[in-house]
Design brief:
CATH superfamily: P-loop containing nucleotide triphosphate hydrolases
Strand content: 5-15%
Oligomer: single chain
Shape: globular
Structural class: alpha/beta
CATH class: Alpha Beta
Distance between the termini: 11 Å
CATH architecture: 3-Layer(aba) Sandwich
Order of helices and strands: EHEHHHHHEHEHHEH
Radius of gyration: 16 Å
């Protein structure tokens, strides 16, 4: 496929949107961008003493390569804090939109892809799950990495992040009006991926 085809996948932390996005991209041969890594990279630079707006304006693909560090709890907290800054979000818009309309198709996952970054995306999915289920998933991930955080602490963190993301003035977390909702609370990874692939396939074949 040489024409642009954008799949926008939004949802809160630990909803499964990242796993689903990567699987969809692989299934259709699309490029994939975890837009949360952009904010994590900016957040990490902020922790290092760099002004977050300046960091966002100077961000490059190379800044997204240290996946282990960027996916850690500290980076996640920093990302949530810089994501509420309108100037940071504005600086990253062009980066995301250019990626989304690249030839050959693209899958972007984040918090505001279907509402702000790519409102004209061919496919929009909003992936969610209960806070308790998401906290349990995140707790298991952190425990596997050696973290001593309790599940209660992780749940509190998930709820706090949800509040920050949904209540921020700029680009709050919400489902686009025409997005298909996918609740993964009681779905296996395979079932959730199958649902998402089916939604993309229907639209993909119609073009």
């Amino acid at each position: 496929m040489s024409e642009p085809f954008t799949v926008a996948i939004d949802g809160p932390a630990a909803s499964g949107k990242g796993t689903i996005s990567r699987a969809v991209a692989e299934r259709f041969g699309f490029a994939h961008l975890d837009t949360g890594l952009l904010y994590r990279a900016v957040g990490v630079k902020m922790l290092e003493g760099v002004d977050p707006v300046a960091a966002a304006r100077a961000l490059t693909r190379a800044d997204l390569e240290d996946g282990d560090w960027l996916r850690g709890a500290e980076a996640a907290q920093a990302a949530s804090k810089v994501a509420v800054l309108p100037a940071v979000r504005a600086a990253l818009v062009d980066f995301q939109r250019a990626f989304a309309r690249r030839a050959g198709g693209a899958v972007l996952d984040g918090r505001d892809i279907g509402t702000v970054i790519c409102p004209q995306a061919e496919v929009k999915l909003f992936v969610t799950a209960s806070a308790e289920v998401r906290a349990h998933r995140r707790y298991l991930e952190l425990r596997a990495k050696g973290s001593d955080a309790t599940e209660k602490e992780v749940l509190a963190d998930v709820i706090a992040r949800d509040e920050r993301d949904s209540e921020r003035a700029t680009a709050p977390l919400r489902a686009a009006g025409d997005a298909q909702r996918l609740d993964t609370s009681h779905l296996s990874i395979g079932e959730a991926v199958s649902e998402a692939v089916r939604a993309v396939e229907e639209r993909y074949k119609a073009i």
